[in-house]
Amino acid sequence: MAKSQPHFVFASAQFLGITEQKSGQPEGLAIALLNRLSQRFQFTYEVQYVPWKRALQMAKQSKVDGIIGAYYSEERAGYLTYAKQPIYEDQFVLISLQSKNIQWRGELSELTGRSFALLRSALYGEWYQKTSDAIDIAVVSSLLQQFELLSVGRVDFIVNNLRTSPIQLKKLNLEGKVTFHQPALATRKGFFTATKTSKLVELLPQFDRYMQTLESDGLLQQLKTRYLKSSLILN
């Protein structure tokens, strides 16, 4: 009798270009990679699309085998094992209205007194830790709210990544009306992860080796170009 293939359940929110549900089917860069990985290493999988906070909670409770596209944090590493090779890389940048003509030369000290709309519970990293006491922060619960506050001039800056910004700009007719300031404030990488109790943990080193092969063959970049074509910068 043929040995049955292991079946893994992933939880994920819908991430533009990375993993999305379209016409009832998962699609995106991570899904294209999972399809190749599942064929290579003989497993089946499914993706449960849920709000991000719920996905994290399901992982904490070991109700799923892994999460797709998670950024690294020390807290999450307590219940998730991360692959070493990232699926994608996001650049987080300052965004302002061109009409405000705000100049930024890359020094955090220049942000003192400026107003920001920032996402509740987002992992902003080192720049935020260094500046949060010196900036005026409006906390919002969605990307759309961030861009709405920016569009009406309520804040000087928002911080978002270059992958997901175009869709919000299009919704609010802001295309060509904002400045994306460089250098990036932070770069965050998204990974395949496995919950500590799942047998998926044993496959992650094999995932890494295969991803390295895809990268050296140029196939990973081809997939990124295909699925992240709406991004302002491809990594």
Number of strands: 11
Strand content: 25-35%
Low-confidence blocks of residues: none
Spatial extent as radius of gyration: 19 Å
Helix proportion? 25-40%
Q: Overall pLDDT, averaged?
A: 93
Morphology call: elongated
Biggest sheet layout: 9 strands, mixed
Number of helices: 7
Quaternary structure of the protein = single chain
Order of helices and strands: EEEHEHEEEEHEHEHEHH
Distance between the ends: 45 Å
Give a verbal description of the structure:
With 235 residues, the chain is α/β, with parallel strands linked by helices. It has helices at residues 29-41, 52-60, 126-131, 143-151, 165-171, 204-216, 219-227; strands at 7-12, 20-22, 25-27, 44-49, 66-71, 80-82, 88-97, 115-119, 136-140, 157-161, 178-195. The strands form 2 sheets. Strands 1, 4, 5, 6, 7, 8, 9, 10 and 11 form a 9-stranded mixed beta sheet that branches. The radius of gyration is 19 Å and the shape is elongated. The N and C termini lie far apart (45 Å).
Write the layout of secondary structure elements.
Layout lengths: L6 E6 L7 E3 L2 E3 L1 H13 L2 E6 L2 H9 L5 E6 L8 E3 L5 E10 L17 E5 L6 H6 L4 E5 L2 H9 L5 E5 L3 H7 L6 E18 L8 H13 L2 H9 L8
Parallel strand pairs: 1-4, 1-5, 8-9, 8-10
Antiparallel strand pairs: 2-3, 5-11, 6-11, 7-10, 7-11
